Amino acid sequence: MGGIPHAARRNRRELMFENLKELPADKILALMQLYRDDPREQKIDLGVGVYKNAEGVTPVMRAVKAAERKLVEEQQSKSYVGLVGDPAYSDAMIELILGNAVERNKVGAAATPGGTGAVRQAFELIRLANPGAKVWVSDPTWPNHTTILAYLGMEMKTYRYFDAETRGVDFDGMMADLKTADKGDVVLLHGCCHNPTGANLNKVEWQAVIDLLNERGLVPMVDIAYQGFGDGLEADAEATRMVAAGVPECLIAASCSKNFGVYRERTGLLMAVCQDAGRTGINQGTLAFLNRQNYSFPPDHGARVVTMILTDPELRADWAAELEEMRLGMLEIRQQLADELQRLTGSDRFAFLAQHRGMFSRLGTTPELVQKLRDDHGIYMVGDSRMNIAGLNAATVPVLAKAIVDAGI
Ligand code: LMR
Question: Please, where are the H alpha helices in 110-260?
């Protein structure tokens, strides 16, 4: 009891930290640890959403390395940049994501620590602007969406999204549920490469969703974290552009973690798009205020590297080419897995794997069978049967296919 004074000892029960309880682990991050702790050599990691090449390596992209070298040589100061980051970063990202779907003066934007930072700031902006708004998320959605909303004490509703039968989108269910949303509610949509299912809306369906949002006065919030991982850089941005151009106002949370491979640099952007350009100043000021309250200045390194790549034609072309190789590699694995399962089962039950887009596919099986794959074969996927397709290669595809069939999935 050494140096603790008597009175303080008596009041031990009132010590602040004693009020803390063990919190539930994030299921994706907990799985990462379980995988690391598994001594089996043949184990396969299909858990956390990190791109891996055929050798199982998450590479630093060529253009990122080149930009970083240049930055080390040329950077003269590490002084603060600005509360919303470097305007050149916002400009470059807005062009990448929105193209010319909306004029630049209609977009308020702030750099954030990763896509998660953008999501968090977006929720805070919603709470500030309309504390009564409910946020509608797809069932299922990225688990961090729901935990941040709960943490912020915001009301959340789910809309049907995944059709367990077809492994595609339950579009009728989605529309029926969104028809019950109240004016001013926010609808969180995944811009492309839905996480965790891999199932996405087509263009006609997106338009129907936009029409419904407008009819009911709902505000879309688009989370776009995988641009370039689905059908290509332009195609993957198409839905986000349709939304931005087709509604009076929307929020867009973007991440560079995956498409630039700068995960640990925490590089994201939050955009507030409004058809009334007269409001952009206030929107921009609100984003700056929220940054200041939460962490002051957003991280700069990743954002600067991304800006250098996007504004240098050679670096940009090399980056886009490498990203395209990654995308095509994932598509090939999808096809190989679907073909192998077709061969083993003699049915098209798994054809959806080739139709899904992005890094993930939801296999659509029970937590018990997911556990069985882990116990019997050292195959790690998230409990809801989300698989990271980039965790596979030509050698492990047949292993997974056989395990799926052996488990009776
Ligand atoms: C994922 O969904 O696995 C990634 O977005 C990583 C994360 O932070 O959960």
Answer: 114-129, 143-151, 171-178, 203-216, 233-246
CA-to-CA distance for 89 and 306, rounded, in angstroms?
A: 7
| Annotation says 142 is catalytic | yes
Instruction: Look up 258 and say whether it is catalytic.
Output: yes
Handedness of CA 356, 29, 160, 213 (dihedral sign): negative
Q: pLDDT tens digit string along 354-394?
A: 999 999 999 999 999 999 999 999 999 999 999 999 999 99
User: How many CA atoms lie within 13 Å of 336's alpha carbon, on the beta-carbon side?
Assistant: 18
Amino acid residing at 90: S
- Stated pTM of the model: 0.95
DSSP conformation letters of 336-404: HHHHHHHHHHSSSTTTHHHH--SSEEE----HHHHHHHHHHH-EE--TT-EEEGGG--TTHHHHHHHHH
Query: Could you tell which of 33, 48, 257 is best to mutate to test the pocket of ligand 1, judged by most ligand atoms within 8 Å of the CB?
Result: 48
Is residue 204 helix, strand or coil? helix
The pLDDT tens digits of the residues spanning 331-365 come to 999 999 999 999 999 999 999 999 999 999 999 99
